[in-house]
Specification:
- There is one protein chain.
- The chain is of the alpha/beta class.
- The protein has one domain: Spore Coat Polysaccharide Biosynthesis Protein SpsA, Chain A.
- Helices cover about 35% and strands about 25% of the residues.
- It contains eight helices and eleven strands.
- A hairpin with a 2-residue loop joins strand 2 and strand 3.
- It is globular and about 50 Å long.
- About 35% of the residues are buried.
Amino acid sequence: MTAAIVLAAGQGKRMGTRTAKQFLLLDGKPVLYYALNAFEQSEVDMVVLVTGKDEIEYCRKEIVDAYGFKKICAVVPGGKERYHSVACGLQALKEKDADIDVVLIHDGARPFVTADMIHKLIGETLVHAACVIGTPVKDTIKIADEDGFCAQTPSRSKVWAVQTPQSFDFELVHGAYGALLDKEKEILDRGIQITDDAMVVEYMTERKVKLVEGDYTNIKLTTPEDLVISEAFLKKIKK
């Protein structure tokens, strides 16, 4: 069985809007709709939607019920940080007592995930147990030192921009998140910022994470410019 966790608990302060970015309208539908619809059309068996405590009822009525999503088995509140919200989603799946082999974790503010990407990730995860989708960078990347000078220029051929979904063997990632929460204070005291799920698996297990090439259109809405770009992408897709 394959499951997915879709995260929609962020505030998106850099978007500069009162409405959280995942609920902004894109061609008349909430941004979150597009991610959920991709999973609805995919081979995933069940979806847990993680949102803010105050948005649970809105998500149930205005998104799940309004658009007839059948695979969403739970809408649960998230936590303070993204990794807390992922842990909440994993726990909700664990409580379903289902035989889950693979779980995909996706940011609801990435509307251009596709069923093909999901299918590709599931297949790779069955082989490698831990996978992230992403794209090789187009720009030259500089590593800065503490004074703001260029310290290193990594080979562009080895640098990827990581996206979501990120896909894992369920027991592997569930155990990794449990270990993370147990050692959370120690990790934070060391100045480590947990920014994606692959980092959790990398730090908490010995499993390497496989990079799977995705699509440059699979952007995350973060700033107002991203909404304009998304509208352009959507018009091109609809042609």
